[in-house]
Amino acid sequence: NRREIWYALYTGVVDAVDDDGYKTGEQEASYTEPVKALMNVSGGRGVAEAQFFGINNPFTRVAVTDDMTTAFDTDTVFWFGKTPGEDKDDYNYICTGVVTTVNGRAIALKEVDVTDGGPHVSA
Q1: What's the rounded Cα separation, in Å, for the pair 35 and 9?
Q2: Contacts of 114 (CB under 8 A, 6+ apart)
Q3: Which pTM does this prediction carry?
Q4: How are beta strands 93-100 and 61-65 bridged, if at all?
Q5: I need a labelling partner for 119 at 20 to 30 A (CA). Which of 8, 50, 85, 113 fits?
Q6: CB-based burial, 75-103: b 16+ in 10 Å, e otherwise
Q7: Are the C-beta atoms of 101 and 53 separated by less than 8 Å?
Q8: pLDDT at position 89, please?
Q9: CA 107 from chain center: how many Å?
Q10: Quick one: DSSP state of residue 101?
Q11: For 36-60, what is each residue's pLDDT tens digit?
């Protein structure tokens, strides 16, 4: 039941540049190149999952993986149901929590809309 999902790990902040390559004086988040993975991704949120991640953790899906080496954290961004484009800021999910067990990891994902400079929670 593994489905295609892409992720990019947060690497820090970099100086933002405009279309001509000049620094703007602002900083922006920097991520690794998107990586394709196969994970079990839930269809929606349930009560058992809510207790697993805590009752105040907002998320819309859970991705489960046996990858114990990748440093997934709350700064990791995801593309699910879409492929990353040239603009790495077109992700549609953010991580709101990671729970590690003996057999794997469960990653709480929250759907966001970044088309207008987000991330913003989708309605």
Answers
A1: 9
A2: 89, 90, 91, 92, 120
A3: 0.79
A4: unpaired
A5: 50
A6: ebbbbbeeebeeebbebbbbbbbbbeeee
A7: no
A8: 76
A9: 9
A10: -
A11: 999 999 876 544 444 565 555 567 7
Best CA proximity match to 14, nearest among 1, 37, 31, 2: 31
Residue 116 neighbours by CB under 8 Å, 6+ apart: none
**Residue type for position 74:** T
Q: Count Cα neighbours of 71 within 13 Å in the Cβ-side half-sphere.
A: 6
When pLDDT is cut at 50, 70 and 90, the band that residue 1 belongs to is confident
Q: DSSP labels for 24-85?
A: EEEEEEEEPPPEEEEEEE-SS--HHHHHHH-TT---SEEEEE---SS---TT-EEEESS---
Q: Is the separation of the CB atoms in 42 and 78 below 8 Å?
A: no
- C-alpha 94/C-alpha 107 separation (Å) is 10
